[in-house]
Design goal:
The complex is a heterodimer of chains A (161) and B (477). Chain A is α+β, with helices and mostly antiparallel strands and 161 residues long. Chain A has 2 helices and 8 strands, in the order βββαβαββββ. Chain A starts with a strand and ends with a strand. The two termini of chain B are 37 Å apart. Classes of the chains: A alpha+beta (161), B alpha+beta (477).
């Protein structure tokens, strides 16, 4: 039986990083690239906020275009790797003009003996023109490890630009 | 984690814990505190833990915090017991620099610099998400993966003489187009001939100092000459190959029982199916990058011809050299007096082979391989030459640029892009930028002093200084 990781009921308040505000993520300096820090009470909001942070690095804006939806089904050996895969998939979708997401819905997030699994839907605009101001080459796995603290979950990662 | 001084420009990171070899950093004493604070030492230490690493985990004077390897990191691995790692190559596979020479005197064409920049800026797409002038079919891109710059020359972009002056004569023969995913292929279909964004640039340069007359003559360089230096790589296609193989090699690391100090150092034995597939795909991306630079080169030539009203021969246009600084390569090196084939990873580091080396173009046999070291848009850039000493102490490797010291966030906070543009213009540097924000992020103050970096490389014997160039026109992606 997979263990559902909906993050509800574990903690009352997330511990936002300095500057994170209501968004639950913040951008921080890195020598050549940009660090994204995200925090949340549970895994689903953490994955969502991390993706929002990545979109903030892109400076992605829903430009003119048709509304669309992209469904994702990802599997990885563990949750850290899954988060990396999720972020890189999101980066690919934005970079290649498939979608600028405005709604991110993590439908299923679970961990079992076979690994971690995510099902999500992204809804937004398939842009007809330039829709972001910064190119993100990828999200390295360096440092990407979800930490559990007394106030909830947190993670930081680098957006390679 | 502290470095121990060996001499004025070499610092050892003593072996400890799971490190299989010590670290060795080429730097000035004044650079150490920043490098220690910037996680370079930690990342050198992590690389030193990988199986089959030979002699040292190295870092060049332009080193800074990267991911997996430090930027400026070099490591060689034995072909039998060693590994290959996408983290030692990076997302922008075979990102590199090309130097073009002209027969023009920079001073004589100074008034034409804005026109040159406009012509190049309009013919080489720069910035985010740009698609280029070349549209490829899936069948055709496989030929790009196989033949690199040679493919571009065969399609009329430049001449066959250019190939002599490109690393690997313009094509990596180890490329395996079948190891490239469908998604990476898709990302490469429309981006050939594009510059990209971030720290990618095209610069018009004036050669303002010649240190080694003979080598400069071999490279076709003279004082006062107009040259063009540009920096770009394998674009979205390379990023995708890196991402694809980080996942595959992450699983391979588990399969082969390799303990990773950092997941970005995911790797597989060189002598494994996974390792061979990554190498094949990486070399395919390298060929894409070489073709990309060849297409851009041809566009630059065309633009200069149009503005000057001269033909290519009359313009004296030629490739001085083209070299990657994000690559893993199979090379023969001497270890403890014996020759071995090694897989040398250079992440933000440049190959620097000596005079007489078989992989150095014949025209440069007496001087050694040209090494191209760009500074920032407001400072000079250097042309160096590889040395025998580099073969002995750094697997024939040297720095790849100035190296950043300031984050993009901090640069944006400190620098006003409009003022920067005015300052550069006042000092004789015209600028065209795809993004105002990008311009501020790449401000000269965000980089180390490139002259200091070049001097340390020369003092350590990693390379000889041949010429210095100053920018007179800059296009930022």
């Amino acid at each position: 039986m997979p263990k559902a990781l909906n993050g509800t009921g574990r903690v009352k308040r997330p511990a936002p990083f300095k500057g994170a505000g209501k968004a639950g993520f913040a951008l921080a300096p890195h020598t050549a690239d940009i660090i994204v820090k995200a925090s949340a009470s549970g895994y689903r909001p953490l994955f969502r906020r991390a993706a929002r942070g990545l979109l903030a690095v892109f400076g992605a804006k829903a430009a003119a275009g048709k509304t669309c939806e992209v469904r994702l089904n990802l599997q990885s050996p563990d949750l850290d790797a899954l988060l990396g895969a999720w972020l890189n998939e999101t980066a690919y979708l934005v970079s290649s003009g498939k979608i600028i997401p405005s709604k991110i819905n993590i439908e299923e997030l679970c961990l079992n003996r076979d690994g971690a699994k995510l099902m999500a839907s992204l809804r937004g605009i398939k842009p007809s023109g330039l829709s972001f101001r910064r190119e993100v080459k990828g999200v390295p796995l360096h440092g990407l490890a979800i930490k559990r603290g007394k106030n909830g979950l947190s993670v930081w990662f680098i957006a390679d630009i | 984690m502290k470095f121990a001084g060996r001499d004025g420009c070499r610092w050892e990171l003593p072996r400890e814990g799971a490190m299989r070899v010590p670290g060795l950093l080429f730097a000035d004493a004044s650079m150490l505190p920043r490098l220690e604070a910037d996680k370079v030492a930690q990342q050198m230490r992590n690389v030193a833990c990988l199986p089959g690493i030979v002699n040292f985990s190295l870092a060049m004077p332009d080193a800074h915090w990267g991911y997996g390897f430090p930027i400026g990191g070099v490591a060689a691995f034995g072909m039998r017991d060693g590994v290959i790692s996408p983290g030692g190559v990076g997302y922008d596979i075979a990102c590199g620099v090309r130097l073009l020479r002209t027969g023009l005197e920079a001073a004589a064409v100074a008034r034409s610099v804005p026109a040159f920049l406009d012509a190049i800026f309009s013919s080489v797409p720069a910035g985010v998400g740009e698609s280029g002038p070349v549209k490829l079919e899936r069948r055709e891109i496989k030929k790009v993966f196989e033949r690199g710059a040679r493919w571009a020359v065969e399609r009329g972009y430049g001449s066959s003489a250019d190939l002599e002056a490109i690393e690997d004569s313009g094509e990596c023969r180890e490329a395996d187009p079948d190891a490239v995913s469908s998604r990476a292929v898709e990302r490469g279909l429309n981006q050939l001939g594009t510059l990209g964004s971030g720290n990618h640039f095209i610069e018009l340069q004036a050669v303002d100092e010649v240190y080694d007359e003979r080598a400069a003559a071999d490279f076709g360089l003279f004082k006062g000459q107009l040259a063009v230096l540009f920096h770009t790589g394998s674009r979205g296609c390379g990023y995708q190959i890196c991402d694809d193989y980080l996942r595959l090699l992450g699983q391979a690391s588990v399969k082969y029982g390799i303990t990773l100090p950092d997941r970005q150092l995911a790797c597989a034995p060189l002598d494994s199916e996974e390792g061979r597939r990554y190498a094949g795909a990486m070399f395919a991306a390298a060929n894409y990058a070489k073709a990309n630079r060849q297409v851009i080169s041809a566009a630059v030539e065309k633009a200069l011809c149009r503005i000057t009203g001269r033909g290519p021969a009359d313009l004296g246009f030629a490739v001085v050299y083209d070299i990657a600084h994000n690559m893993a390569k199979f090379e023969e090196h001497s270890v403890n007096g014996k020759k071995h084939m090694l897989c040398v990873h250079r992440k933000g580091a440049t190959r620097a082979f000596p005079p007489g080396h078989p992989e150095v173009p014949r025209a440069y046999a007496a001087s050694g391989q040209p090494v191209l070291v760009p500074g920032s848009m407001g400072s000079c850039s250097y042309v160096l030459a590889g040395t025998q000493r580099a073969m002995e102490i750094s697997f024939g490797s040297v720095c790849h640029g100035a190296g950043r010291v300031m984050s993009r966030t901090e640069a944006l906070r400190r620098v006003n892009a409009s003022e920067l543009r005015r300052e550069l213009s006042a000092s004789g540097v015209e600028v065209r930028a795809a993004s105002t924000r990008g311009l501020a992020e790449e401000a000269p103050c965000a980089y180390k002093d490139v002259s200091m970096v070049a001097d340390i490389c020369a003092a350590a014997g990693l390379a000889r200084k041949v010429a210095r160039m100053k920018p007179i026109g800059v296009i930022k992606g």
